[in-house]
Design brief:
The complex is a heterodimer of chains A (242) and B (829).
Chain A (H helix, E strand, L loop, with lengths): L1 H8 L6 E11 L4 E12 L4 E6 L5 H8 L7 E6 L2 E2 L5 H11 E4 L11 H11 L5 H11 L15 H14 L4 E5 L7 H18 L2 E5 L3 H5 L3 E6 L2 E3 L2 H7 L1
Parallel strand pairs in A: 3-8, 3-9, 6-7, 7-8
Antiparallel strand pairs in A: 1-2, 1-4, 4-5, 9-10
Chain B lengths: L1 H5 L3 H6 L1 H36 L6 E5 L7 H9 L3 E13 L4 E9 L9 E4 L7 E4 L7 E4 L2 H6 L6 E4 L2 E11 L13 E5 L3 H4 L8 E8 L2 H11 L7 E5 L7 H36 L1 H9 L4 H42 L13 H20 L18 H23 L2 H30 L7 H11 L1 H35 L7 E6 L4 H10 L6 E13 L2 E2 H4 L7 H4 L2 E5 L8 E5 L10 E4 H7 L6 E6 L2 E12 L11 E3 L11 E6 L8 H8 L4 E4 L1 H39 L1 H13 L4 H37 L9 H4 L1 H23 L2 H8 L1
Parallel strand pairs in B: 3-9, 6-8, 15-20, 17-19
Antiparallel strand pairs in B: 1-10, 1-11, 2-3, 2-7, 2-10, 4-5, 4-8, 6-9, 7-8, 12-21, 12-22, 13-14, 13-15, 13-18, 13-21, 16-19, 17-20, 18-19
Helix pairs in contact in B: 3-8, 3-10, 3-11, 3-21, 8-11, 8-12, 8-15, 8-21, 10-11, 10-21, 11-12, 12-13, 13-15, 13-23, 14-23, 15-21, 15-23, 21-25, 22-25, 22-26, 23-25
The chains are: A alpha/beta (242), B alpha+beta (829).
The structure holds adenosine-5'-triphosphate and magnesium ion (MG).
């Protein structure tokens, strides 16, 4: 844990720094380049949307940024920690203490109740009184009445709200979301994204989000485009950012 | 971690079908192995004690020279915690109100019998029988019922034995040491050893055999014999249960069968656990990926699932024992019924060890590897399905698991032959499977989809080719194991039945003079009990081997019974039906030279064809070369001879008496009295009670075997269910899709059933072939029987497995058919 505290103490570095990132997978006959030459810096508290066509490499990039996968080349520094230098377990520890996730397909554990699903990361991060915090969060996302329900008893929008509560539960410094509204209808999607942005603002979390939803993308501070594995940032947006 | 652990509460586990299969497999394995081990140890106890009762003790020391053994030997035995007893056996003349009779006396000490019970009748005849663990009191005798008629005696009368008058207190129905010696053929009189001296029948020089009885713990007996052996003289003979007893070989086989059954249970359980836990592990991948994403580390995941395994182990063992103990109790009851006497339940905690080991090995060699690999599931899986596990990763696991389980079988059965035969059968099976699988898949690739049930079935097999092949292997293996057991059981039972048919000879007539052979034969012809095997018999000692005295020619430490006593020699022109020549040739028509020697004796003496044997018969000596070596069926209840001469051969001028055995039904026993009166010099040996005992024992062992077989078949069914349910979810999703896309229900049902039927048929054929191969080895190496093909027994198996699997397939389609496709797809999401 020493390493961790050391990393948090230092606030001078950006939240996320990516240089010369590339990712390839070996297919049966040749190799497929999914990402290449990605350079990126995201500061604390920023909210960033990654947009692009289906198959352009968004999910792959998000996985690499979040340390769920290791890149073929290049460096990802998450909150000052160089991800490819960490072991699998160290990355898990890093995620437990400072990273939150929201997925397109919710990814709640069907065997656990809403409350238990939110408590899980709290316990994994070793946070005290997990149940109290989990209740508060579920009330905050408007599900105070549904604590004991299992995911199967909840609608898609409700499930995603549980997932959002879970993502913020351990007080992450950075939140990754992969098409959080992709499986929801427009109105529900709007409600969910409102909630996400709101909580993000309240908690001062850095947000990195992949989305097809232009409105949602527009609500983020920066928009990044990805096409055929190459990341670009529109001039206007960059100026706005600086 | 509480919540993470909650993910896997016992109740939740039980809702998981893979976990249920693992648990059921474990429970059956533990139950089978524990029941078998407990029962085998009980059986051993019971049978050895009934076998011991053939000696009336665990061991006997015979002093054929009639001189008492040093008192110090008995003291030593008692100091080692052994019980001792004493008998004196001799023949003497007895008399009653009506005439005289040669009788064979057995005088027993107070301790007699140390094992087993004596059965008597206090009222003559047909009165109530009584069993007791004692001999007659001083002053009393118990006599063979035949003597009542021969001497015109009644219970309560006095009988003159030598110079002593003794009271006839009861009729002797059955003595525990009912084996027979040719030296004691006359009707039995049992008396107390303290009365012997007063009869005056035992004098210097009269032929008396002293027998000392010993009973106690195995180790104490072994230690004592170690101490005793160097002190023994040539006229002393130490006899144990296992040697030469009629049924000990049958018992050995039963024991081996039980071991085989247990080993198969171990294998089946391992397979079921392996299949189900692999399935479980696959289903857990998403959960693990999410837990990792949320920050749980590899170690935590490992711990989570290890705790799971431990819990399953505890549940499996507890459940298994809960099943095993009542089952064991029931079997002991059956045993008691078969033996018609209460059997003391002998619970041997050590017998539970193999069951525990089985659970442990199944869990850690078979369930653990796929679960251990869970910690390597990439976290990235939460964002996108990752390439699945390849078979290659599982290969080293398989190797380790195979080694572990065969080590277990070895440890358990202690038979390398068994392990070899099973392993050989499996390797053969897997080899054929690999080839067949490749060929089959190449063939199936050509079949393209269509609306026809057969085509859909073949396409289904091809589409799931990996699963199909895996299922085929497991089914074939399961069927092979079940078939092995069925085959061995069948040949075991049929061997016993041919060995001891209902009408096996149960009476011997001995000492028939040459002049009365004709009359004796026609007497029994008239009484509807024709004599079949009449043989001349000459008593002689083997004294020289190739001109050298036998005792020097044969190494000292080989103790050879045949040398210590007189041998029964015979001549015959035909080889008895149940004998078999293993070396040399049977006498041709007019040959007068040579002898034929029984194979065991030949082996112990190191005899080869052409060796010259010298026999001393009375004062004459005969020397003949060995011309053939043959096996005999000692347990056939027919007269058997170590050495046979040709007619007109070396024995032609020797004084012979005739011997025969024949079957006399219980209700015809009355004829024996008349026979004895008519032929007073012929000895009648009644062994019907011995045969009854043997048949009882065979019967009870058979029942045990059937029970074990049922257990194993249950285990096989669980394996099949485990395997079928492994692809359940995939198949249900496919079924739902086919229905969504407009496929008719009947088509779906027929193609699925066909698919499984084909799988079942193939697996059945493969399994049966491999089983025959394995049994071939087993039969030759373990059950020393002749291999017989039993196709008719196992032929239905492929059909049964085809039908069974088709039914399984139909059954697992149930939810697909009863629920709307929409609901189903959502549920399977
Ligand atoms: N492990 C892999 N093996 C082979 N191809 C892969 C692998 N991972 C990603 N790809 C390919 O890389 C490309 C980018 O995939 P990715 O999932 O990142 O796209 P995406 O932008 O998230 O698309 P969508 O918007 O449809 O989710 C796709 O063509 C995908 O098929
Ligand atoms: Mg994507």
């Amino acid at each position: 844990m020493n390493q961790m505290t050391d990393l948090t103490g230092n606030q001078s570095h950006p939240m996320l720094r990516v240089s010369d990132l590339g990712h390839r997978v070996n297919l049966e006959t040749d190799t497929l380049t999914i990402l290449q030459g990605v350079n990126l810096e995201i500061n604390r508290g920023e909210s960033v949307a990654i947009v692009g066509r289906s198959g352009s490499g968004k999910t792959t990039l998000l996985g690499l940024l979040a340390g769920l996968d290791t890149p073929s080349e290049g460096v990802v520094e998450l909150d000052g920690a160089q991800i490819s230098k960490l072991s699998e377990d160290e990355r898990a520890r890093l995620r437990a203490s400072r990273v939150g996730f929201v997925f397109q397909s919710f990814q709640l554990l069907p065997a656990l109740s809403a409350l238990e699903n939110v408590m899980l990361p709290l316990e994994l991060a070793g946070i005290e009184a997990p149940e109290k915090r989990a209740r508060e969060l579920l009330e905050r996302v408007g599900l105070g009445e549904r604590l004991g329900h299992t995911p199967r008893q909840l609608s898609g929008g409700e499930q995603q709200r549980v997932a959002i509560a879970r993502a913020f539960a351990s007080d992450p410094v950075i939140l990754f979301a992969d098409e959080p509204t992709g499986n929801l209808d427009n109105r529900t999607g709007k409600a969910v994204s409102d909630l996400l942005m709101e909580l993000n603002r309240e908690q001062g979390t850095t947000l990195v989000m992949v989305t097809h939803d232009e409105h949602l993308a527009a609500r983020c501070g920066r928009q990044l485009h990805i096409e055929a594995g190459i990341l670009t940032e529109p001039e206007a947006a960059r100026e706005q950012a600086s | 971690m509480q919540t993470a652990n909650k993910l896997m509460s016992v109740r939740r586990d039980l809702r998981e079908r893979d976990v249920r299969v693992v648990l059921v497999a474990l429970i059956i394995a533990v139950a089978t192995v524990a029941t078998i081990a407990l029962f085998a140890s009980q059986l051993q106890r019971t049978l050895v004690s009934s076998a011991s009762s053939f000696l009336a003790a665990d061991r006997q020391l015979e002093a054929e020279n009639g001189r008492p053994i040093p008192a110090e030997w008995l003291d030593e035995a008692r100091e080692r915690g052994l019980e001792t007893g004493r008998m004196v056996e001799f023949s003497t003349m007895i008399s009653g109100p009506e005439g005289f009779q040669m009788a064979s006396i057995k005088a027993v000490s107070n301790e007699y019998p140390l094992r087993g019970e004596v059965e008597i009748q206090r009222q003559s005849p047909g009165g109530e029988r009584e069993t007791l663990a004692a001999g007659p009191r001083p002053g009393q005798v118990w006599i063979n019922p035949r003597l009542l008629r021969l001497l015109d005696l009644d219970i309560g009368d006095t009988l003159q034995v030598g110079e002593r008058q003794l009271e006839v207190a009861a009729l002797l129905v059955r003595e525990p040491d009912g084996g027979f010696r040719l030296s004691s053929l006359a009707p039995r009189v049992m008396m107390h050893v303290d009365d012997v001296e007063s009869t005056g029948a035992v004098q210097e020089g009269s032929r008396v055999e002293l027998v000392y009885l010993f009973a106690g713990a195995q180790t104490a007996l072994d230690d004592y014999y170690q101490w005793l052996e160097p002190r023994l003289e040539p006229s002393h003979e130490w006899e144990g249960v296992r040697e030469g007893e009629t049924f000990s070989r049958s018992f050995d086989r039963a024991e081996r069968f039980l071991l085989l059954g247990g080993s198969l249970a171990v294998l089946l359980a391992a397979v079921a656990v392996a299949v189900a836990s692999r399935q479980y592990a696959l289903a857990q991948r998403d959960t693990v990926a999410l837990l990792k994403t949320l920050g749980l580390q590899g170690q935590g995941i490992g711990r989570l699932y290890l705790r799971r395994l431990a819990l399953w182990g505890v549940a499996g063992v507890a459940g298994g024992l809960l099943v095993a103990l009542p089952l064991f109790w029931l079997l002991v009851g059956v045993l008691g019924d078969a033996l018609e006497r209460p059997v003391e339940m002998h619970f041997d905690p050590a017998a539970l060890l193999p069951a525990l080991l089985t659970a442990l090995v199944s869990l850690f060699a078979f369930a653990y590897p796929p679960i251990r690999r869970l910690r390597h599931v990439p976290a990235m899986r939460v964002l996108r399905a990752q390439p699945g596990e390849t078979g290659r990763q599982a290969l080293p696991d398989l190797a380790i698991a195979l080694v572990a389980v065969f080590a277990l079988v070895w440890l358990y059965a202690g038979e390398l032959a068994l392990v070899g035969a099973l392993l050989g059968g499996l390797v053969l099976l897997l080899g054929i499977l690999a080839l067949l699988g490749l060929a089959l898949m190449a063939l199936l690739r050509r079949v393209r989809g269509g609306g026809n049930a057969w085509r859909l079935a073949f396409v289904g097999l091809y589409r799931h080719r990996q699963a199909s092949l895996a299922q085929l292997s497991v089914f074939a293996m399961t069927i092979m194991l079940a078939a092995i057991l069925i085959l061995v059981r069948t040949s075991l039972l049929s061997d016993w039945q041919t060995q001891l048919p209902e009408d096996a000879p149960n009476h011997f007539l001995i000492n028939i003079g040459p002049e009365s052979v004709e009359q004796v034969s026609s007497f029994w012809q008239e009484h509807n009990a024709p004599l079949e095997n009449l043989y001349p018999m000459v008593r002689g000692r083997l004294t020289e081997l190739n001109g050298e005295p036998v005792k020097e020619a044969v190494s000292k430490d080989e103790r050879i019974n045949a040398l210590n006593r007189e041998l029964n020699l015979t001549w015959m022109d035909q080889l008895p039906e149940d004998n078999e020549i293993v070396q040399g040739q049977w006498f041709s028509g007019d040959e007068t030279e040579g002898v034929s020697v029984e194979a065991d004796l030949a082996q112990r003496l190191g005899l080869e064809l052409g060796d010259r044997l010298t026999f001393t018969i009375g004062s004459a000596r005969v020397t003949e070369p060995v011309v053939s070596i043959r096996t005999v069926q000692w347990d056939s209840m027919k007269p058997n001879f170590y050495v046979a001469f040709p007619p007109d051969g070396g024995l032609r001028d020797m004084p012979a008496t005739w011997i025969t055995s024949f079957y006399l039904p219980g209700e015809a026993k009355g004829a024996l009295g008349e026979f004895s009166r008519q032929f007073p010099t012929v000895s009648v040996l009644e062994i019907d009670h011995i045969i009854e005992r043997i048949q009882e024992i065979v019967g009870q062992v058979t029942q045990a075997i059937e029970a074990i077989l049922a257990l194993i078949l249950a285990a096989a069914l669980v394996v099949m269910a485990a395997v079928v349910s492994a692809t359940l979810r995939d198949r249900q999703r496919e079924g739902a899709l086919i229905r969504t896309l407009g496929g008719r229900q009947s088509l779906l049902v027929r193609s699925t059933m066909l698919e499984f039927a084909v799988l079942g048929l193939l697996a059945g054929v493969l399994g049966v072939v491999a089983a025959e191969a394995a049994v071939y080895v087993l039969q030759a190496r373990m059950f020393d029987g002749n291999f017989r093909w039993h196709w008719q027994v196992v032929l239905p198996l492929p059909l049964i497995s085809a039908v069974l699997l088709a039914a399984f397939g139909r059954w697992q389609l149930r939810p697909v058919l009863s629920v709307s496709p929409m609901l189903l797809l959502r549920r399977l999401e």
